[in-house]
Amino acid sequence: MNSSIALVTGAAAGIGRATALAYAKAGCDVVISDIQRDRLVEVEQAITKLGRKALSVVADMSVESDIRTLHADTLAYFGRLDYACNNAGIEGENAPTHESSLENFDRTLAVNLRGVFICMQEQLKLMLTQGSGAIVNISSVAGLIGFPNLPAYCASKGGVIQLTKAAAVEYAEHNIRVNAVCPGVIHTDMIDRVTGRDPEIEAQYAAFHPMNRMGTVEEVADTIVFLSLPQSGFITGQALAVDGGMVAR
Ligand SMILES: NC(=O)c1ccc[n+]([C@@H]2O[C@H](COP(=O)([O-])OP(=O)(O)OC[C@H]3O[C@@H](n4cnc5c(N)ncnc54)[C@H](O)[C@@H]3O)[C@@H](O)[C@H]2O)c1
Questions:
Q1: What is the tally of structural domains in the chain?
Q2: 30 with 45: CB under 8 angstroms?
Q3: CA distance 51 to 114
Q4: Which residues pair with 125 in a beta bridge?
Q5: CA pair distance 244, 209, nearest whole angstrom
Q6: N or C: which end of the chain has fewer CB within 10 A?
Q7: What is the DSSP letter of 3?
Q8: Is any ligand 1 atom within 6 A of the Cβ of residue 62?
Q9: Distance CA 160, CA 163 (A)
Q10: pLDDT tens-place string over residues 143-198
């Protein structure tokens, strides 16, 4: 039997890299996409070492033609797409709403929300043709609850949840499932940029969670793979927090 094909955006680092490797460990061949060409090479090698095929495509999620080409390349190389994880995202500026720049709002929405929308359009077309598929969009706890000084990020991640629910309802009868994952604070480059690796600030971030620690990229990746594989076959339209209990408070 042919391997399942998974696609991950923002796969050069952090949650995306871990997800690409988790798909490979689950027996998938993987399309990995990012703007960081050099780091994609390392991820491609790691997937190959696991005995799976990898296709690297440099694509910027704020550029429509890059996204359309990414999916055309996927179809040309692998002939199908079973699972997609729309993960690429940026944190944007940290500033009070009344002082935030419109440039930041537009840029954050372009990558985090418009990019996911265009990805979903392409993925749904492929999956409709096949009659099956599963999409996992990466939102955030910031899509579920408010955080100060991150208006564009919160809006983009809330939008991802609603895109997810709308598509889940729309495509359920076509055997296509669409879910979102909402991570708490996960130790990645993004969080190192925000904390500046200051141990005091890191401890404050850990304390957001009842478990009093940050999550690991593997904990998020394993949830994404679970929501992709047939074992979650009756789950669609969910926004699942992977957050050590943060939003349960
Ligand atoms: N780390 C966290 O605590 C956390 C929490 C909640 C949600 N998230 C979300 O998870 C996703 C991954 O975050 P991460 O922490 O791994 O971030 P990261 O910054 O460590 O990695 C993000 C990856 O996305 C890529 N990327 C950025 N802009 C891109 C663009 N325009 N086009 C294509 N690729 C682009 C980067 O090059 C990088 O490889 C993001 O959507 C983020 O908002 C992260």
A1: 1
A2: no
A3: 34
A4: none
A5: 5
A6: N
A7: P
A8: yes
A9: 5
A10: 999 999 999 999 999 999 999 999 999 999 999 999 999 999 999 999 999 999 99
